[in-house]
Amino acid sequence: MELCNYCNQKSKAAQNLNALELEKLELNCNPVTFRKGDRIMIQNALSFSLVYVKSGMVKVHVMGPEREQILKITKGPCYLGIPTTVGAKINQYSVTAIMETQVCFIGVDIFRELLMTNGNFAYQIVLDLCRNELQNFQKYINQLQKQGPGKIAEALLHFSDKVFNDLNYELPITRNELGDLTCTSRETVSRILTDFVQNKMIEVDNRHIKIINKKQLEMISQMG
DNA sequence: GCATTAACCACAG
DNA sequence: CTGTGGTTAATGC
Predict the structure, then answer these.
(1) CATH (domain of A55)
(2) Residue A185 Cβ < 7 Å to strand B
């Protein structure tokens, strides 16, 4: 087993742990590598561990009454499942790898113990949860009040700014999933993308996206 | 009414 | 898995 002490991808929170605490963590930390498409957490399953994504990329999604809803696409390093594991026992959502992803499953009991005994650790976790919630509020508003082009523009910019830090990138998901992420249909996604191409805002080659006119995309994203 | 927007269906690469 | 065309329903001048 990998030793947490020597882990080169320690979270900001875990950097506050002392040798003894890291040893405890080690006993309840199980590293696993997932392939693209593998389910890491399953909605409605009982779970006693949360997930620390060391590297890779995942989608967090729920099956709603009508359709699949993607809550977010996120890359490591990050914690996932803290709300649903610490706050509930049954997973409220699923997590699926969209590329090769290395994670550690961390037992909820040891995690609770660390929260209670190490304030600096706990503070970093709270900080993380806060940022997450704010980001979620932002997404609610965007998705509820913007119309199609605004939502798609926002998603494209999100990948460019927050995920890849590049104007050129490989879209990690299908058009269908992009629809599930932005609350539109795959048909609408593909129409809007060709529209963006015709208006010279982006270039598209299958999954490859190149943002040419970022200003205008931002305009559309903001105007809705 | 008429225009806009987007979902649903169908069908073709 | 994607792109496109037709149809339909909702919404807003």
Answers:
(1) 2.60.120.10
(2) yes
- Are both A98 and A182 inside the same structural domain? no
Q: pTM for this one?
A: 0.89
From the alpha carbon of A150, which nucleotide's C1' atom is closest? B5
Query: Is residue A127 a part of any domain in this protein?
Result: no
In strand B, the nucleotides that come within 7 Å of a protein beta carbon are 5-10
For A144-165, the pLDDT digits (tens) are: 899 999 999 999 999 999 999 9
Q: Which nucleotides of C are covered by protein (CB under 7 A)?
A: 1-6
Q: Does one domain contain both A15 and A105?
A: yes
Buried b vs exposed e over A105-138: b needs ≥16 C-beta within 10 Å?
bbbbebbeebbeebeebeebbeebeeebeeeeee
Residue A167, token pair as written in the block? 């104007």
Residues A114, A8, single domain; the answer is yes
Measure Cα distances from A71 to A96, A139, A217 in Å: 12, 9, 22
Determine the structural domain holding residue A170 and report its residue range: 144-223
User: Would you say the C-beta of A147 is within 7 Å of strand B?
Assistant: yes
- The answer on A189 and A156 residing in a single domain is yes
Residues A112 and A160 in one domain: no
Please state whether strand B lies within 7 Å of residue A142 at its CB atom.
no
